[in-house]
Each structure stands twice: as C-alpha cells, then as structure tokens.
Design a protein that fits this description.
This protein has 352 residues and is α/β, with parallel strands linked by helices. It has three domains: 53 residues, 434 Repressor (Amino-terminal Domain) (Orthogonal Bundle), CATH 1.10.260; 118 residues, Rossmann fold; 142 residues, Response regulator (Rossmann fold, 3-Layer(aba) Sandwich). Helices cover 40% and strands 17% of the residues. α1 crosses α3 and α9 packs parallel to α10. It is elongated, with a radius of gyration of 26 Å. It starts with 9 loop residues before the first helix and ends in a 9-residue tail after the last strand.
C-alpha cells in the first residue's frame, strides 16, 4: 500500500482497483474505451488513495492542453483597466467556461522576443487583440498549425477575423454629428506600434495607419467631413498613445485653443470622449461629443456613439478558435446611439 512518504502513482491506483495499468490509464485518458463499472472502480480507487492525474503528462501524451491563449498587444493591465477590453475578455471567458477550457494570457512587449514568447505558450489556439499590420506576431501565428482568431484585424491569411465595418460606422456617426454645422476636431487612437503622441491636422497624417481600426475610422471621419463641405486638411487631430480617459483629457487640453464654441469632438472611443468632456465641460459647454462603444457613462452624458459589442466579439473569437471549421471572417453589426435613444444603423456589406 502506498504511504504518505511517497507520491501515489497510477500503478498504485491500478493495483487498488484490480485492473491493469493500461486500463487505469484509459479510465482517465480514454474513458470511452473502459466499461462504466470498471471506470468507476478506478476513479473510486484514485479517490481513496488521493491520486490526481498529472495534467502536464496528459497534455504531452494527448497533444492538447485545454488552454486558449489570449495575445494582447497592449500592456497587460489594459485588459483589466479598460472597460471594453474587460468586456471582450469576459466574452472569451464565457466560452472557455462553457467548453471546459482554461484561459492563458500572453502579453507582448513590442520586442524581438514577442513571436517566440507567443509560439512557446502551451495553448491549443490563440485569440489576438487587434494589432498593427507590421506586428511580427501575426506572421508567426499565421504559420503556426494551431487555430487563431483576431478581433478587429488586420486580416491575415491563416488567421480568422471578427470585426466591424469601422469605415462605414465612422462615416455614419461623423455625418450625424456634423448635421448642425459644428466644427470638428478628432481624437484618434495610435497610428502604429510606436504609439507616439501627436497634435496635428489632417494634412499631417500619413497616407495610411498600420493599425487597421485607426485607419478605417480616420478614413470614415474624413469622408464625412469632406462631404459636409469642410476641410480635412485643416481639421485639428490629436493622436493619443493609449485609449484612456487621461489620454483623452490631455488631448482635449492641447486641442482647446483650436476649438470653436460649437465644436464637435470626434473621439475614437467613449473613454477618450469622456476624458475630453472632463477637460472641456467648463470652457466649452456647448461642445458636442462623438464616441465609440456606447458605454453606460457616455450614454448618461448624451455622447453619440457607435455600439461595439465587445463581449459578443470575445465570444465569437473564442468559439472560432475552439471550433475552427467556420467562416474565416465574421462581421459584427453596429448601430449609432445618442444618449438613451438608439438610431437605426446597420453594418452594410460594402464600403470598406
């Protein structure tokens, strides 16, 4: 009989249950191959002896870890600090619970070791938070045999994508905000992985932004501004480093000298719009705000915003990673909300 002085082994369990070592192994690793009564006897013997299967050993034998890896191109704390990122992760977690999978965070740091760090993770598949087109992790994951899904893009062969039509949504929300003749300024997400803070105008932006979400929304805003008969070239733009209220507030302070009394602050998220509102509410009480994500706080303040159901996107990403035999691209519908009153909108199939 095993004693407390040594680790209980599967051989001990087999002896206690009166079965072969192979039968005891099958009772844990291939239960369908063992009769129910025998399987119960093995499990009962394991319980009496305090035996627990070696998860690492089982993973090595089966080639499955039952872990889903979430790759974040932001600082890992962002996943918990940003309300929308937290919603996305909650959606991923929902599916992991339903599918009896674990969840592993794989942060990246923007250095040469990122790709190796991601590929060495003991996971069965990857869910990637949106990143830039030149992120080397994309190529590494695309060439890996494990399934991978990215939220928001960029779209890449070998990686499924769950996204919105950011161009059409940005065009629609900006066009709605410009109907009453307001003068726009833009608070933008980072343009690339360098995340450099910048205050400029439309003329000072590069032709394309490597972050696809940033690029699509800027193009949508530009189209709406020019269709309203205004100059994109002269439109003031602040590019922030991070999607936080603090960054939105700082951007608003730098843009304030360029604002008209009836300015329209077009922000790429409710977090940025809320930060701008905190800064400008006294100096520019007549300003209006556009955001993205339709957060409860933004809705209470009457911020016109694009819905962005990130919990649903997290669910879709996790489901695709765990069940890859589905369409490689899934587009998420959007609407525009103003305060508590939704405005009809849809996600058209064209316009990107």
């Amino acid at each position: 009989m095993p004693t407390n002085s040594r680790r209980v082994t599967l051989k001990d369990v087999a002896a206690r249950a009166g079965v072969s070592l192979m039968t005891a192994s099958y009772a844990f690793n291939r239960p369908a191959r063992v009769a129910a009564a025998t399987r119960d006897r093995v499990h009962r013997a394991a319980g009496e002896l305090g035996y627990r299967p070696d998860a690492v050993g089982r993973a090595l034998k089966s080639g499955r870890t039952h872990q889903l890896g979430v790759v974040f191109s932001e600082h890992l704390a962002y996943a918990f600090d940003d309300p929308q990122a937290a919603q996305f992760l909650a959606g991923v977690a929902d599916v992991c619970v339903e599918e009896d999978q674990g969840l592993t965070f794989i942060p990246t740091r923007g250095d040469a070791a990122d790709a190796g760090r991601v590929l060495s993770a003991a996971v069965d598949g990857f869910v990637l938070w949106t990143t830039a087109e030149d992120d080397p992790v994309l190529a590494a994951v695309a060439d890996d045999p494990r399934p991978a899904v990215i939220q928001g893009g960029p779209q890449r062969q070998g990686i499924a994508c769950v996204t919105q039509d950011d161009y059409q949504a940005a065009h629609a929300v900006a066009a709605q905000g410009l109907r009453d003749g307001r003068t726009p300024v833009v608070i933008s997400f980072p343009l690339d992985r360098h995340r450099e803070y910048l205050v400029t105008t439309g003329a000072g932006l590069p032709p394309r932004a490597p972050f696809p979400v940033t690029d699509a929304r800027l193009r949508g805003y530009r189209a709406a501004i020019e269709q309203a008969g205004l100059s994109w070239t002269n439109t003031p733009i602040a590019v922030v480093a991070r999607n936080t209220q603090r960054d939105g507030a700082a951007a608003a302070r730098d843009l304030a000298p360029r604002l008209t009394p009836h300015a329209l602050i077009i922000a790429m998220s409710d977090e940025l719009a809320l930060g701008a509102h905190q800064t400008l509410q006294k100096s520019h009480p007549e300003a209006a705000y556009l955001g993205w994500d339709a957060s409860p706080t933004g809705q209470r303040l009457g911020i016109t915003s694009v819905t962005n159901p990130l919990r649903d996107q997290g669910r879709r990403c996790a489901d695709l990673a765990l069940n890859p035999d589905q369409p490689n691209t899934q587009e998420v519908p959007w609407t525009i909300t103003s305060g508590s009153a939704p405005t009809a909108g849809a996600s058209p199939a064209h316009g990107r």
